[in-house]
Amino acid sequence: METLEIHSKDFLIKWINVPDNSVIDWEAKPLKKSINFAFYKKNDDSPNQSQLSLDSTSTISELPTPPPPITAPPPQRSRSASTASVNQFTKSNNVYKAKSRASTLSLIGESDLTLIKNYNKLVANELIHGKFEIDKGGMFAFVFDNSFSKTISKSVEFSAKIVKKPEESSLVPHATEEVAQVTDQSVFEEENEVAPGEVLQSVMLKKRKKKLQGFTKRYFVLNFSRGTLSYFKVNDTKLRGQMPIKESIVSANPSNRELIVDSGMEVWHLKAVNKADFNAWVNAFNSVKKEEPTSPTQTQDEATPSNNNYSSVPLSSSNSEVQVIVQKLNQLKTEHPSPLANEIYQDFMNLLARTRNGEALVSAGSTDIQSVFSSEFHDANDHFEDNGVYIFDDEEGGKLPQEEVVVVEGETSSDEEEDDEEDIPVVADHGYVQDRDLPQPTVAVEEDNLYPLPHDPIKRDFDIPVCNHSPPSLLSFVRKNVGKDLSTIAMPVTYNEPTTVLQKFAEMLEYPEVVTNALGSDFQDESGEKVLRVAAFALSYLSTQRAKERNKRKPFTPLLGETYELVREDLGFRLVSEKVSHRPPVFAFHVDTESWTLDYALSPSQKFWGKQSEVTTKGSVILTDKSTGEVFTWTQPTTLIKNIIAGETYAEPNGTITIKSSSGYKAVAEFAKGGMWSGRSEGVTVKAFDGKKKELKYSVEGTWTESFTLKTNTTEKTIWEAGELLPNFQKKFGFTKFAGTLNKITPLEKGKMAPTDSRHRPDLQLYEQGDTEESETLKNKLEQDQRVRRKQMEDAGEVHVPKFFKPKTDGPADEVEWELIQGENSYWNRRKRGDWDDLLKLW
């Protein structure tokens, strides 16, 4: 895919010329930051040659001398006529005035573009795929809008290919509708594929947007077959802008080699480096506008190798003789530079450009000629000396004023709005996509103010030691405990993995950006997209079980009063949890972010049933949008662990789960059912319904092991993808990289987290390092100490009171909702003070 770069307070238009009866098959993926996106078609506008005004009566290649000065642009200037050829002018400031980006963008709706579909916001790191059926061809525009961002540039991966519609198409015959599926199509072209000889490319100077900042060098590529002019930074492949030349007004001034390209929405002020380049570009633009043949026909074998870095001259059977003349002229102007030598050389090149009835263009190069017919980019260092400010000679041998041509080395002005504004570094490397420059919802700030966030980036080690032991055989164990709750039975430590249940449930927060994307975008309720995205987050937790090695073991059971905190400055959340009840076991969690909170108090149980075990989790997950107050709730699905006696052990979610919104909308996820011999079933289908139980048009499909795709009748968006597993994960408990970080103590936690935190468990730390014997001994001791404490409390008539959570209502511990204690004695305020004196001594 091609990478596009869109500046802050700016937009980029990707133009595509499409023939009749075609389909545009495209994909787009914003990187790290979101961006707005829409699709337009340019209205037909046939040029009328008879209406050409004074500044467009002739092409530059036919003008050996500049025309008389024009003090002002003629008032009768016709845009449609002006797009038929390259116009002449002498005073650029009298022809075009700079247009502000904001005003230009607001004029899109008033221009000759017709909106086909507005996608509004494309969420960061999500791949969207769509198809458009085109009956009547023309020029189409993909508009990427970053005008809402004040400081941050955006990058987008984009690709498009044009395919031929099948002869007996079953598609809906409307040019303004997208197509969900097209079969038996032949590909006309990939948008990024360019055959040799189909482009003219070189370095030119492009005027910066701000006044008095002069010009800067950029690499320009003109694609003849598509009629588009694109530009890039030198030594960079990110597209930074594109113009449809045939539909634009192109004006040229031979006296200072200036070119102005006006599409009606954008104006580019360009300057060729030398006269040879200038003439080559003018001829090329005229050729595109007149639809003349443009690409050279000479093959690679016919070309004569050059030692002077110039391109082949594709002209008739006397090619070799012509090239010899070009070489001699080039040698003359190089070894004996003079205005006369330059003029002879240039006259000859112009003559060649007009030969063969305009059937081909010439681009002869030397050390000062960069225009080449090629499909390869040239290194700008072959043509320029990067030594700060560089003044180029004009065609009369004089000097251009220093303030007129400015070439900046490397990084450019930090206050530049257009060409050289760099991205603000993004700390997150895990997909955290909250756009800091977007308006954020106003929320009530708690007194701890999300302490310890924000925080400087933390380097985290995700790797863990290789496991050198296998879990014990369960055959005899199962025979004695069929139908019993596994959580109430003491099991050998070698049956565990190096996490606790508190850490295991913290893995629900591996993908917080899915929630942020769902709540931070203006999705319409009637489409169902918001609740479907929340459903994708709810299901993403299941992916922790996708490595089958992880299904053979269980987490350590926390002690009563044990806690666990998780602060991820890169993902933008903080989590605190506590084991609040021992029988039944209940684990309470609270998660804070800037825009939403998550509460859940879960009580898991696992029972053996012959060849498989059943894991059920009692309790609800409650997600609250801080800005709107909307609440989403769901419960964890029942999971079956199959083949626990023999064969390959694996986990498989079963049945359905429902994600409900307080607005009345809901999403129902149904897991595919596998046959007896089909192995693990991984498919999931999620459908959305409104308050009247009417099914909505959007849905989600995918697998809980890999990815989820949001689907409509016209497009597809990849809204979630599973994170990476650890290297050599088969010998590391099947952990993901996220799980590998959960037991690490970083500078964020060291000396600050509660002494009851799971990271302090000595048996857990020894087990992760591979010392199973000592870990078994310590585990038994910790459990025995817990039994002693419980007996003492029973004898004293006391009950355990959690330190950081409290029940909202009366009732059994596994049936009520639990909430985090707020105020002075909240976990985070106590953490800030280091106030842990009244906590239980667990180890």
Automatic annotation (TrEMBL):
Keywords recorded for this protein, A-Z: Cytoplasm, Lipid transport, Lipid-binding, Phosphoprotein, Transport
GO molecular function per UniProt: sterol binding
Places the protein is found: Cytoplasm
Residues covered by the PH domain: 197-290
Gene3D superfamilies per the UniProt record, alphabetical: 2.40.160.120, 3.30.70.3490, GOLD domain, Pleckstrin-homology domain (PH domain)/Phosphotyrosine-binding domain (PTB)
Record's compositionally biased regions (Pro residues): 64-76
UniProt protein name: Oxysterol-binding protein, putative
Lineage: Eukaryota, Fungi, Dikarya, Ascomycota, Saccharomycotina
Biased composition (Low complexity): 306-316
Matching SMART domains: PH (SM00233)
A biological process from GO: exocytosis
Annotated source species: Candida maltosa (strain Xu316) (Yeast)
GO CC annotation, single: plasma membrane
Compositional bias (Polar residues): 46-62, 294-305
Similarity comment: Belongs to the OSBP family.
Segments of this protein annotated with the region Disordered: 45-85, 289-316
InterPro entries: GOLD_dom_sf, OSBP_sf, Oxysterol-bd, Oxysterol-bd_CS, PH-like_dom_sf, PH_8, PH_domain
Signal peptide: none
